[in-house]
């Protein structure tokens, strides 16, 4: 039977969603319906959220609540459900207060991602940079890049670049390796001055073939021989030029990004 898990927060809910999803992955056989209720920042909204949760409780297995609410009164309303309610702030803030010997300032819980904050500006600048330098569109400002991802089409360059910019504020550009590059075993000229910033993504030919077939079915671009050629030549290029690289076939963008950050000792600009 499906079990409802409510993620309740007084802000966007990103914190409780991230932690909650990480915890729930440890229960792969459980049938779980995830329900987000963000911006529960007043007693009125908390009462409405509680009614919604209790309504779900009448459908079978009792729901589970994961919450991150800083206001004591608002949090108390949610906890009055009598259901299992795990407060992520309560679990971590109190021990940290004891460790630091100071009381946590609740107002700081509301500043993350605020338009006037430095983190917000860093994130927007990094995202704009990654979008402007996606797929080799703009090669004029690569000197400002923290990292340049290279690889064949559909190897995961764009989503990884955007993740790096969105989550870490890293200015990530990405550049495609064309058929000419692969045949000549050479880098595009615009990348030559930035060899130290290059990171290559390789991928299994069958994986590229399946992805490309969904976009351009029956095309030469999507054919298995073409995919095999490109994957083989890209890997050969990385090895010949000693470019650090990673097989992205079975890696998530989170795993790829973490590898890139560690490999190049990149500094996170936003928290």
Walk me through what this model shows.
45% of the residues lie in helices and 15% in strands. The chain is built from ten helices and eight strands. A four-stranded parallel beta sheet has the order 2-1-3-4, with helices on both faces. Strands 6-5-7-8 form a four-stranded parallel beta sheet, sandwiched between helices. Helix 5 runs antiparallel to helix 6 and helix 6 (157-168) packs across helix 10.
Summarize the SSE layout with pairings.
Layout: E1 3-9, H1 14-24, E2 32-37, H2 43-57, E3 64-68, H3 72-79, E4 84-87, H4 88-100, H5 118-132, E5 147-151, H6 157-168, E6 172-176, H7 179-184, E7 198-202, H8 205-215, H9 224-241, E8 245-247, H10 253-264
Parallel strand pairs: 1-2, 1-3, 3-4, 5-6, 5-7, 7-8
Helix pairs in contact: 2-3, 5-6, 6-10, 8-9
Which key phrases capture this entry?
four-stranded parallel β-sheet, alpha/beta, 271 residues, 8 strands
Order of helices and strands: EHEHEHEHHEHEHEHHEH
Sheet having the most strands: 4 strands, parallel
Considering DSSP H and I runs of 4 or more, what fraction of the residues is helical?
40-55%
Arithmetic mean pLDDT: 91
Strand content: 5-15%
Q: From the alpha-carbon coordinates, what is the Rg to the nearest angstrom?
A: 23 Å
> Uncertain regions: pLDDT < 50 for 5+ in a row?
none
Shape: elongated
End-to-end separation in angstroms reads 38 Å
- Main β-sheet, spatial strand arrangement: 2-1-3-4
Total count of helical runs of at least 4 residues: 10
Using DSSP, what is the number of strands? Answer: 8
* Sheet/helix structural class: alpha/beta
